[in-house]
Amino acid sequence: MTALLVRGGQKLTGRIEPSANKNAVLPVLCATLMTDAPVTLRNVPDITDVNRIVDFFRELGSSVTWDKADRRLEIDHSTVLSGASATLPQAMRASIMMIPGLLARLGEARLENEVKGCTLGAREIDPHVAVFRAFGAEVSQAGHQIVFRKKGGGEAARMWLEYASVTTTENFILSALTASGTSQIVNAACEPHVQEMCAFLELLGARIIGKGTSMVSIEGGHALGGADYTFIEDFHEIATFLALSAVTGGDISVRNAHPEHFDLIDRTFAKFGAEVTHADGWSRLRAPSQLKVEENFTSHLITKVEAAPWPYIPADLLPIFIALGVRAQGQTMFWNKVYEGGLTWHTELSLFGAHTLLCDPHRLITFGGDKLAPATVTSPYIIRVAIAMLMVASSIDGESTILDADPIRRAHPGFVDNFVSLGADVQWVS
User: Fold this and answer.
1) Per-residue confidence at 123, pLDDT binned at 50, 70, 90?
2) Distance CA 147, CA 149 (A)
3) Which of these, 15, 73, 69, 66, lies nearest to 42 by C-alpha position?
4) Domain 3-19+233-429: CATH superfamily, name plus number
5) Long-range own/partner contacts, residues 139-142 (CB < 8 A, 24 or more apart)
6) For residue 361, what are the contacts with CB-CB under 8 A and spacing of at least 6?
7) Which of 316, 240, 315, 322 lies closest to 285 in space, CA to CA?
8) Can you give the residue ranges of the Enolpyruvate transferase domain (predicted)?
């Protein structure tokens, strides 16, 4: 068990260069399986899931060179062995996005029934099965594995998703690349990381219309080439460091080349009395003297933060705003419309002395502004919940411990080093 020891109470100040978005890096890595041409990826973070995918590529026989210091990853799948194992790594949700590439290369892929990721509740695989079957794959059970087999050449497909799932959208796009004709997906996810995967595929020569919208068309059957691609900054990490500034009374600037992604995020910070400014490629939050929840003109309603598929506030960012809700004077309702297991960790906040009320699996109310005390709390296996607990601990004078804080390493390389560079007193302990 790895924990974070936090001595809180410091006002954090300084500048941060954020890493790339894990949710963009992993799909792009999976997408490299669609080409035999060499690919160079830059600004690649040294995180757990990237290491797992790189290890899997090497097992396949791919040529991989990773300069971690330079954050440059060079991949050549033309050396993949014809008899390579097609059993995917079980410990990460991103495994499922390697299936289109493995079907195209090896004609088969195998996935454990319970592919894992953050413990956010049910993560169903059925929409993915529907995608692969739509493109002609055969899907069957074999013991504890699900087996995907390529049947025929694959024809174009049209699919209207019940839910705008990111990974389902990405799997549809990847599968459509090898199908003959034009495929279309309706109610497609349009998050910045989905757009980034599409931008990478377009560099390879893919023909995609409508990226960033809910209706995307893919003209398949074209050979893909190589590319030299640099990942953009992770909007999750940018928002996280801005929130750390707000909760500690600090003044933090974060590099951000895409402030156009932040209109609603900025508005959500404003609900707690915190203002974000964007200038010259940087985003800055100078904390107010006191966080205070914005009052509604509709006086009988509680101020709400609603998380749902983009362009709503992302569910992944909800925990950092819950941390602000705990510290801000006033009441806030947080509504996670995506995951039914995304709010159960709120009981750990009570160990700090926070007052919260879980209305149902999807809605939580914080009654903020109470005096909090240091505590030892335990994080579930959810990346930004561990960070939210770290945020609350950092805002309290005294020594706190965040147990099971390892999920942070899944998405944010050097997060603690960056944190310390801002003036925090925090360290990893066993």
Assistant:
1) low
2) 7
3) 73
4) Enolpyruvate transferase domain (3.65.10.10)
5) 142/110
6) 121, 340, 341, 343, 344
7) 240
8) 6-418
User: Domain-by-domain residue ranges, the chain?
Assistant: 3-19+233-429, 22-230
Angle at 396 between CA 393 and CA 402, to 5 degrees: 20
Of 323, 300, 322, 317, the residue nearest 264 (C-alpha):
317
Domain 22-230: give its CATH code: 3.65.10.10
Edge-to-edge strands of the sheet including 227-230? 63-67, 72-76, 39-42, 227-230
Q: Give the tens place of pLDDT for each residue, 291-306.
A: 999 988 888 889 999 9
pLDDT for 338 beyond 70:
yes
Q: What is the pTM of this model?
A: 0.91
Q: Between these two residues, 203 and 410, which has the higher pLDDT value?
A: 203
Alpha-carbon distance of 428 to 344, in angstroms, equals: 25
Contact assessment for residue 259 and residue 232, using Cβ atoms and an 8 Å cutoff: no
pLDDT, mean of residues 422-429? 95
CA–CA dist 302, 310 (Å, integer) = 23
Backbone angles phi, psi at 54, to 5 degrees: -60, -45
Token output for 383: 């990346």
Burial of 162 (0-12, 13-18, 19+ CB in 10 A): exposed
pLDDT of residue 20: 95
C-beta of residue 190 within 8 angstroms of C-beta of residue 112: no
Structural tokens at position 27: 């799909």
**Average pLDDT for residues 369-395, to the nearest whole number?**
95
List the structure tokens of 258: 């895409």
